[in-house]
Amino acid sequence: MRWLVTGSAGMLGTDVVGLLRSREYDVTAAVRSTADLHDPGAVRELVEGHDLVVNCAAWTAVDDAETHEAEALEANGVVPDILARAVAGTTGRLVQISTDYVFEGHATTPYAEDARTAPRSAYGRTKAAGEEAVRAALPGRHHVVRTAWLYGAHGGCFPKTIARVAREKGAVSVVDDQVGQPTWTADVADLVVRLVEADAPAGTYHATSSGRCSWFDFARAVVAAAGLDPAVVTPTTSDAFVRPAPRPAYSVLGHGALERIGVAPIGGWRERWEAAAPSVLR
């Protein structure tokens, strides 16, 4: 089985490529400097001969997307469409990585995979457009995999920032009114591979840790793992920490689709963080 991973130099893409190679799969790792994903002809050549394409390429600067939505749409909506149309001309399948931001973020129970999308930010709108493009072009040969609150060893992320600020300043305020599921990129990579190896039906799946917590809760766990006193983390509110793009107050995703096909969801966020912390905070 031959795999193509786009966005392979990013935090998630690096883990996907590393895992696949550790399992001795044949992997093409595509990066921006060598693969023009905006050129349909080049993309057709790129995907030819691959059985699986995992699209980790994306515009992930959530706040910048508010003032650069057209550019974000190119990366998050147009590129998935080009990839899906190219894969449609082969016998392969496409895994499209998506996000909790496609939801409104005001729920009180976990979002099901088929819940109505209602993005409130430019980033969310562009990622929702990518989902729809993939479903339309590859109705029977796609996996849309939504994840959220990602952290990992390969790139900047919330735990690294919190640990650094706590060490340098001795105090850090973190919002406690946004709830979600901190998720390790290595676990998302593992779930993507398990979905494919299980020959999962086409459709949408959620790749987040189980359970839930606030950013404040997670920050305290991060600081503790860094060997610092969790008391240096104090709570604040979203109203006191306004960002250009609205953040979902509730980003908890359900895992019913995984459970229905017998694929185990990712474990609890705290146990997974404890496993990840040595590599993320090194």
Structure description:
The protein is α/β, with parallel strands linked by helices and 282 residues long. The protein has a single domain (2-154, 181-211, 251-267), classed as NAD(P)-binding Rossmann-like Domain (Rossmann fold, 3-Layer(aba) Sandwich). The protein contains nine helices and twelve strands. A six-stranded parallel sheet has the order 2-1-3-4-5-10, with helices on both faces. A two-stranded parallel sheet has the order 6-9. Strand 3, helix 3 (69-88) and strand 4 form a beta-alpha-beta unit. The two termini are 34 Å apart.
Secondary-structure content class: alpha/beta
* Sheet with most strands: strand arrangement: 2-1-3-4-5-10
Question: Which overall shape is indicated by the principal axes computed on the Cα atoms?
Answer: globular
Beta strand %? 15-25%
**How many extended strands?**
12
Question: What's this entry about, in short?
Answer:
The chain has a single domain (2-154, 181-211, 251-267), classed as NAD(P)-binding Rossmann-like Domain (Rossmann fold, 3-Layer(aba) Sandwich).
Secondary-structure map:
Elements: E1 2-6, H1 11-22, E2 26-30, H2 40-47, E3 52-55, H3 69-88, E4 93-99, H4 122-137, E5 142-147, E6 150-151, H5 158-169, E7 172-175, E8 179-180, E9 183-184, H6 185-197, E10 203-206, E11 213-214, H7 215-225, E12 233-236, H8 256-261, H9 269-280
Helix pairs in contact: 1-6, 2-3, 3-4, 5-7, 7-9
